[in-house]
Amino acid sequence: LQPKNWKAPSGYSNGVVSKGNVIFVSGQVAWNENYEIVSDDFVEQVKQTLENIITIIAEADGKPEHITRLTWFVKNKHDYLASTAEIGKVYRSVMGKHFPAMSLVEVSDLLEDSAKVEIEAINISGHVSNSILADFAFAMQGLGSGPISLFGSETLKSKYLPEVSKGKLISTFALSEKEAGTDVASMITTAKKDGSDYILNGEKTWISNAGIADFYVLFARTGEAPGAKGISAFVVQADTNGFEVSKKIPITSPHPLGTITLTDCRTLIYTQRSYISVKAL
Ligand SMILES: Cc1cc2nc3c(=O)[nH]c(=O)nc-3n(C[C@H](O)[C@H](O)[C@H](O)COP(=O)(O)OP(=O)(O)OC[C@H]3O[C@@H](n4cnc5c(N)ncnc54)[C@H](O)[C@@H]3O)c2cc1C
Question: So where does this one cross the membrane (predicted)?
């Protein structure tokens, strides 16, 4: 966090905002694993102390770049001021170019007689992307199963909804097309009645969960009326003949996205009402 017009601080950050698993590290001094101070030299003590912090946070998969706070206690601030260049060097060698929120205070004494510096740390390990993925998975399960819970037959509801809520079936919501994004009413994917089945032809794109989903709530033009009318939603199993995830779309976030091609894809019929009429569209 860097307020506008403030000069950038050197070697630390004014503030840090973070989210994830929080690790608190007790004040470390320059000791080894047997709690013996390794050196009398101030700079070497700093190096060993920082290494101890890194060793501790690694126990919870924490990394130097996840350290959000360092509090330094020094017995003599002149030890620090006399060797800032060397300290900067050892700091970067252990921590990389990562500068958390820091404080440094001179104290009258430290519990360890031969320690010249003690540092405590807070590490917030980056599980944020996992949480984004979890949020996405939750949203997609809701979006894909929503039309079934709102408009589906009892057979569709009992077949899909309990398994979706347990996470055993993955759902999708396949509405968008190359030329029908915001303007959904211009979609051209067709669904033609053939006996008690529907035959789907067309292409859907930007479909989240494409390729990993078990079933697709897929919208197509049934033709009862033009424009925004005459569109229905179909539940299409991923293993249906004529259904293909024809392209994977790479994006920067962990998010499976793809294009679906439907070629004479005959919907599986579970009941008389295997499709869901979405009158609102
Ligand atoms: C990561 C990701 C995941 C997606 N997942 C799914 C999914 O699971 N299922 C699915 O069906 N779709 C999905 N989509 C598609 C998404 O819903 C569409 O991208 C969205 O509907 C916009 O369509 P478009 O990209 O064709 O943009 P367009 O419709 O071409 O719009 C482009 C721009 O023009 C503006 N615009 C359009 N029409 C007008 C107008 N009349 N007046 C003023 N401005 C207008 C829009 O606001 C937008 O800024 C996903 C997209 C992304 C990026």
Answer: none
Say if 69 falls within a structural domain. yes
Q: What is the CATH classification number for the domain harbouring 74?
A: 3.30.1330.40
What sign does the dihedral 273-236-258-169 (CA atoms) show?
Answer: positive
Q: Ligand 1 within 6 A of 170 CB?
A: no
Give the strand order in the sheet containing 117-125: 21-28, 117-125, 67-74, 101-106
Pick from 176, 177, 248, 259 the residue to mutate for probing ligand 1's pocket: most ligand atoms within 8 Å of its CB.
Answer: 176
247 shares a domain with 189: yes
> What are 80's two structure tokens?
């620090």
**Six-digit token string for 28:** 């470390």
Task: Please indicate whether residue 148, judged by its CB atom, sits closer than 6 Å to ligand 1.
Answer: no
Q: Is the beta carbon of 207 within 6 A of some atom in ligand 1?
A: yes
**Secondary structure of 47-68 as H, E, C letters:** HHHHHHHHHHHHCCCCCHHHEE
Structural domain that includes position 251:
130-277
In this structure, is residue 10 part of a structural domain? Answer: no
User: pLDDT tens digits, residue range 25-59?
Assistant: 999 999 999 999 999 999 999 999 999 999 999 99
The 10s digit of each residue's pLDDT in 48-90 is 999 999 999 999 988 999 999 999 999 999 999 999 999 999 9
